[in-house]
Fold these 2 entries.
Entry 1:
Amino acid sequence: MYRKNNTIFTIDDLISQSSVMEEIKNKIHKVSNTDSTILINGETGTGKEIVAQSIHNLSKRYTQPFVSVNCGDIPSNFLEHFLFGTEKDNLTASPDILGMLEQANGGTIFLDEISALDIKLQAKLLKVIEDKLIRRVGGKQDIHLNIRVLAATNESPDKLVRERILREDLYYRLSVFQLDLPRLSERKEDITPLIRYFIEFYNRHMQIKIEKLNDQVLIVFQQYNWPGNVRELKNAIETAYNNANTNEINLNDIPAKIRNYSNVLEKITLSENNFNLKDKVEEYEKSLIMIELNNTGKKLAETARKLGISKQLLKYKMGKYELR
C-alpha cells in the first residue's frame, strides 16, 4: 500500500529500544497529525529519510505522493528547473515539465541537504512554504500547491546560519518543529536490536543463513564509535555476510577498520600471561577510558558523563593510567 506513494519505510523501520529513540518516535506520532514544516537534523546515516517517510505515512496525506529530493546531488544551475518545473516554450515547442514541487501536490516533499540550495533559491522556497504558490521557470502564472514540506540537514543548522549558508528566515520557517536525531554512538543500546534486524534482512535477501555473531564481534561493535552511524552498521553486517564461511559472524568477517579499532580485544581477551583479576580489571577500565576519550575528542566532561563517573574521578584515573 505504501509503495504506491513512493515510500518504502514506516515508523516500524526505526529499530530501537533506547529511551532517546522512543522519545523521537513519540514526537513523530504527534507531529504527523499536523501540516507544520519540519526540519530533521542528523549526521549522515542516522535515518533522516526513514523519519521523513514515517511522518508522511502516519499523516492524513499517506495516500498521496511522497517526493524526496537530495539537493546536494543536483547541479545548482539545474535545481530551479528541477524543483519548479518549466513552462512550455512556443518557440521551441518544448512541453511543460512538472517540477518536483508540483509532483508532490497533495502530499509531502522532503528536501534533504537543504543548505545545498543557493541563497536566491532559498528565498523562492521560503515563498513557496509561506504562500503555497509556485511559478514555473518561464511561466507567467502562479500555481497553487497543497503540500507539506519536510527538510533535512546533516550539519548544525545554527552553524549553517552563522556561516550564511542557510538563510536565517528560511531556517526559522523550516524549524517550526525540529527533530534532532542522535548518533549511533549516543544510542548504543540499539546496536543489538539493529544487528538482529539486519541479520533477519540479509537472511531473506542473500544466499547465506547467519544465526548469530561471535561474542568478540559484539564487544567490538559496542566499543566502536560508528562515524557512519546506522548505515555503517548495516554495511558492516553486509560485509560480514560476504566474508562468512559458517553460520556465525566472526572477527575476520567484519571490516578491518572496525576489527582493529583501538585494539580493544588485545586489552580485554585473556592472554597467555597469568594476570590476576585486579590487573585484568584495570586493563579493561583503561581501555574503556581510552575509547571514550577518543569518541569525545578528549572532552573530559562528556567522557565522564558517558562513563557514568565524575570529572574529578576521571582525571584521577587518567593520571593513574598515564592517559594525560
Entry 2:
Amino acid sequence: MISPLMPNYNRADLAFEHGEGAWLFDKAGRRFLDFGSGIATSSLGHGHPHLTRAIAEQAKRVIHVSNLYRIPGAELMAQRLVEASFADSVFFCNSGAEANEGLVKAMRKTMSDAGQPERIRIICFDGAFHGRTLAMLSATGNPKYQAGFGPAVDGFDHVPFNNLNALRAAITPQTAGILIEPIQGEGGIRSASVQFLRDLRATCDEFGLLLGLDEVQTGMGRTGKLFAYEWAGIEPDVMSLAKGLAGGVPMGAVLAKERVARALVPGSHGTTFGGGPLACAAGNAVLDVLLAPGFLDEIAATGGYLQAGLEKLCQDYPSVFTEVRGQALLAGVKCAVPNTDLQNAAVAEGLLTVAAGDNVLRLIPPLIVRQAECDEALARLGRAARHVQPAALEMAK
C-alpha cells in the first residue's frame, strides 16, 4: 500500500523535534550537527531569536493579503536588496525553480520588447541544476531528472562548464542569454572560474545577450560575500535567489536591471503567495543579520577554516576523499567511495550532510556556524571516513 505521502523522496529515518543554532534534536534527545541546513536554506540555523521573533510577530498581525495590495515588508526588502546588489528592481516568488522560471521569462520578454522576439534560446551548462518544473528540467538538461516526463521544453542549449570556446560556438541569432550557477551545487560543487565569469559578461556585451545568474544556492552570503558574482567583479543583468533568502520560510526572488525588470508589465507574470507579509518579515530579519557589520567577513573566515580542515582530511584519508571543492560555507569533498555510503556513516556519527552530483558530499552549514562546530564536524566526518575506509581500500585494489 502506498504511503499517504507520495514516494518521490528517499527520506532518511530521522524526524527532528527542535533545533538550536547548528544542531538538530530528535524525539529521543539525540543531537545532530546540521551541516546540510535544509539544503543550504536554514541560513541562520535553528531557533534564531531575531528570525523567530520576526516571524511570530508578523503572524500575529497578518500572514497573507495577496499582491492585489501593497505589502510594506516586500517594498522594504526589495529596496534593501537593490541597495546591496547590481539590481534596480525585484520580483518575489516562492522557490528557486519559480525564480528561474521568472528569470527566463524576463529574458525572453526583454528581447521581444526590443523587437527581437525570435531570441528565445538560453545557453545553459552541463552539470547545471535550475529546478524541477518542466521548463527548468530542460534548462538543467540532466536525463536522470527528465526521464518519463515527455519531450523537453524547447529553448535551452547546453555547453561544457568553464569552456568559453564552446559557449561562443553555441551562440546563434536566436540566443537571448546565458544562465549559469557561479558554483554548481547539485552538480557537485563545481566552481566557474573568475575569468570564465568575466568572459561571459564580455561575451554577452559583445553579442547583445543577457547574463543571468542562478544564485539560488550561492547567494545570501554563503560564499563570504552577499552574492557570489561579486568575487568576479562583474554584474549580471538578472539573477535568481531562494534557499537562504528567508532562513527557511519559502521564498524566491528575481533581481534585475531596469531594462529587464520593465519587461514584466502587469499581467505578464505573477504569484499568489510570493512576497507575502510573513515571508518578507523573515527575509528582512535575515538581511538584518547578514548586512550587520563584519558578518560576511566572519562567514569568509569560518568557511576558510572549514575548507582547510577538509584539505587535512583529504591528506589523512586519501582512499576516501580525493578533492575539496567550493568556497567558504558552500563546501564539498569528492569521494573515492559512494558518497551516500559516507553520508550514511556521517549520520551514524551525528553529522548531517547532503549528497551531490559527481560523487561529492556537500557540507553547507548554517551561516552562523563557528570554528568550534567546524572542528566537531571535521572530527565526526573523520570517524565516518574511518568507518568506510576498509571498503575504500578494497575498491582501490
